[in-house]
Amino acid sequence: MKDKVLAAIRQYGMIPPGACVLVGVSGGADSVALLHFLQRSGEQFGCTVVAAHVNHGLRGEESDRDERFVRALCERLGVELAVTHLQNLAAGAKESGQCLEEAARDARYRFLEEEARKRGAQIATAHTMDDSIETTLFHLARGTGLRGLRGIPPVRGKIVRPLITCTRREIEAYCAENGLDYVTDSSNLSDSYARNRIRHTVLP
């Protein structure tokens, strides 16, 4: 995984020397591996690493568990952490006509962009090759043009995705090799969401 991440960062110019990088951390394997890798490699790129976590408040105690886990992880790694709690997300999604997943994603990016502006930082998200393939299939099933078939771009404005050439299996192996624990979002196990059905049924 490490070689792939380094190659992607260099190929796409993701982290200029002296940059501040704000890592979105959910507590899952992908974001834990990304934060750990960038924090350990910060000196190599001459960058400062900070983290951000969104407690969506949608899964009760499980959401609070994720926040506690991320706080403890950042404390252990010596990484500054910004946290926000979303209120009435379900009601807001209904009012705007969005599905809950879209509303949560939009709120998450608004928070990341706000925190990045404060620090003059780039945003690093933990999207993987698996995520990009799932996105392509999702767009294809829903109907799309050529733009939608590209999947997730490695760089979009201030947003960079250093794990985009790595598979989920490689990331889980990195966590195992480095003794990194992570949490599992139970909503990712449900086939109620179209993306999860693609992940669990189509990709295998």
Describe what you observe in this structure.
By secondary structure, the chain is an alpha/beta fold. The protein has a single domain (2-202), classed as HUPs (Rossmann fold), CATH 3.40.50. 51% of the residues lie in helices and 13% in strands. The chain contains eight helices and six strands, in the order H-E-H-E-H-E-H-H-E-H-E-E-H-H. Helix 3 links the parallel strand 2 and strand 3 (80-85). Helix 6 crosses helix 8 (194-202). The longest helix has 20 residues, at 100-119. The chain is globular and about 45 Å long. The chain starts with a helix and ends with a helix. The model has no long low-confidence stretch (mean pLDDT 88).
